[in-house]
Design brief:
13 strands; three-stranded parallel beta sheet; 19 helices; Glucose Oxidase, domain 1; TIM Barrel; alpha/beta; globular
Amino acid sequence: LDDVAQRVIARLRGLPAPGVPDPGHPFVLVAKDLAPADTALLDLDKVLALVTTEGGPTSHTAILAREKAIVAVVGVADAAGLKDGETVIVDAAAGVVVTQPTDEELARAKNRADARASAASAPITPGAMKDGFEVPLLVNLGNAEGAAEAVALGAEGVGLFRTEFLFLSSSQAPTVEQQRVVYEKLLAAFPGKKVVVRVLDAGADKPLPFLNDAHEENPALGLRGLRALRASEDILREQLTALAEADAATRAAGDGADLWVMAPMVATVEETEYFTSIAREYGIRTAGVMVEVPSSALLADRILAVADFASIGTNDLTQYTMAADRLLGSVAAFQDPWHPAVLRLVREVGEAGRANGKPVGICGEAAADPMLAVVLVGLGATSLSMAPTALADVRATLLQYTLGEAQAIAEAALAANDAASARAAAQSAAASTSSPAAEAAATREKETEQ
């Protein structure tokens, strides 16, 4: 709406419409923030990197940038002081912008970029640590059309299929038949592989007229996720019916996937019992929950005694742990999944998974950060799900460390007092190994200090 308003104002004033500049040569784009349309339509031959003064790691701009493999650092308050013609190094891995870089720093950055390109073109292998410990690398998808690209990039399945797109563009819920067609297409694209589908997660910034469009003073803490579905149980039952029918149809055709279904915004053991019970009524063999609020992380041992699996949504878990709206730029500094408070909660869930013999996946944006992915495995994550474009980087980084080294790196991050210190501690611990990735981590740490 803000983007549309600015374009209308420019038109009325007879001024050029706001948007991405075109200086006629490759450049680093610096902006307060970008409208989703601008981010989606960036010319990647011209825009080398993106730096914004607002937003956080889980803002829409950051998520879109990751999906398009754009090098981006968001929430850099001092970026407004950058001048046209100035040379900078935009280091998305470390989350820093290096100004006035030396020739040595520029050469090092080029070497790292070349190494990243080489890793991206390397043969695709299953996700694993250096010692062979398997870590399946899955993808987050918003529609079935993205399946082919994900498979081509080496996805081992789907860790999060968001079903909201079926509901958001309509004034009434889609029929069972309409849903079943989409689910069949998705399952057929991943024969024999795990596909985790999240039932409708509406509410907060995604109100629906037929579900929960009543005004709420604080919708992020209101009737959303599973709470909204319980209040309109017929919608949940229709969705489970469509999923069960799609599963049966694709299995009968011989190209079925391993369907897992999970509920969003689960906060209590009782909610876990409710969802797993109703899912099994429809023949869903594997029913789990998303861990997005601290209560479910702290009760993970009891929740996983009931659910078949847990999937940690680090975007919302960070938001609720740090009491910082993930869409609000003014508190972007708090929206960092590297914060030790968030990492401790992840560890709680990882330990509960081990104790109950249940898998614990990560499906939030944190899994797309290669070094943080190592930390998450060290904390007990058994699979990682991310945007398809992040698979190559994460796969290459995991291969540089053993599980024991990942656990040591995670412990170093947990011992820190804040997000920046946790990131630096992890990089320092990684540097104690002799791997190329560790050397890159050490380089990033030095650049962060500079």
